[in-house]
Amino acid sequence: AERLANKVILITGASAGIGQATALEYCAASNGNVKLILLARRLEKLEEIATELKKQYPNVKVHYEKLDVCDYDKVEPFLNNLPEEFKSIDILVNNAGKALGVDKVGDIAQEDVEGMFATNVLAMINFTQKVLPIFKKKNSGDIVQLGSMAGRYSYTGGSVYCATKHSLRAFSDSLRMELIDTNIRVIEIAPGNVETEFSMIRYKGNSAAAGKVYENTTPLYADDIAEIIVYATSRKQNTVLAQALVFPSCQASPFHLHRG
Ligand code: 8X3
After folding, report:
1. Is residue 260 part of a domain?
2. Domains in the chain: how many in total?
3. Which atom belonging to ligand 1 lies closest to the Cα atom of 148?
4. At what angle do helices 222-233 and 17-30 cross, to 10 degrees?
5. Residue 85 lies in a domain
6. 96 CB burial (10 A radius; 0-12, 13-18, 19+)
7. Are 14 and 49 in contact (CB under 8 A)?
8. 17 Cβ contact partners less than 8 Å away, ≥ 6 residues apart
9. In this structure, what CATH number is given to the domain that contains residue 42?
10. How do residues 73-88 score in pLDDT, each as one tens digit?
């Protein structure tokens, strides 16, 4: 809790799932002694989340804004226009991401290809590049990268999604090397099955197909990953949790899932 005190934490994709759970977990771990910047496309959701957090943790400071991470040109003005007390970001959680469809190569809509690369790769790189000068100036800061087991394994029907998460991993590894002479940490968390809106989005609202992903399993939940994000970013400065592959206990790869 001490180590998190007063930290400014920026979370993309904060309106649901792992992003939302991470906001709550930072409050829980610090007893509300953090400053959260919450970004997403759905402003009403952020509003609700901010209200709820403040109810539970009266001390917490929350700044939320509607921002589509794919509006690349809006990120710099957004950072420059942050209220003074939120300007010195300490932790960037690059959480916004998605899978679109399970089509095979040859059948994948260009829109889906671009949608996944735009959010998972281009927006993540853009955000990292725009926030990095803030970290470099004070020689500290954490960059949390939401990877996936899809960045470790590739599977059929996931060519583009897997390519985006492999990209995230490669980018993160290069960045960690480039920052070797700084105190800036690059932390990649790579979950397996987590039950969030993820599958509903991947299956484009087909709830039967989305439900099948988790059927007869106990998957991870958003707060399980949030705990790990908070754990990783509250280690001593000398400790970098560089990569964490995280499965529910019934899973060991995309191809090893026990349904019981
Ligand atoms: C989420 C897990 O199954 O799509 O990143 O690879 S999976």
Report:
1. no
2. 1
3. 5
4. 50
5. yes
6. buried
7. yes
8. 194, 196, 197, 198, 222
9. 3.40.50.720
10. 999 999 999 999 999 9
Q: Which of 167, 193, 214, 215 to mutate to test the pocket of ligand 1 (most atoms within 8 A of CB)?
A: 193
Give me 203's structure tokens: 């299956």
Mutate to test the pocket of ligand 1, among 149, 245, 255 (most ligand atoms within 8 A of CB): 149
Say how many Å lie between the CA of residue 66 and the centre of ligand 1.
26
**DSSP track, 119-154:** IIIIIHHHHHHHHHHHHHHHT-EEEEEE--GGGT--
Residue 112 counted as domain residue: yes
The set of residues, in sequence order, having a beta carbon less than 8 Å from that of 246 and lying 6+ positions away, is: 189, 190, 191, 192, 220, 224, 225, 228
Structure tokens at 181: 């002479």
> Over the stretch 204-238, which tens digit does the pLDDT of each residue have?
999 999 999 999 999 999 999 999 999 999 999 99
Rounded to whole angstroms, the Cα distance separating 35 from 226 reads 16
Name residue, tokens 């480039």: 178
Active site residues: 161, 165
Q: What percent of the chain has pLDDT over 90?
A: 99
Q: 117: domain range?
A: 2-254
Write down the pTM of the prediction. Answer: 0.98
Is there a domain that residue 148 lies in? Answer: yes
Confidence band for 1, pLDDT divided at 50, 70 and 90: low
Bridge-based pairing of strands 243-246 and 251-253 is unpaired
Residue 62 phi, psi (nearest 5): -125, 125
**Ligand 1 center–CA 44 separation, angstroms:** 27
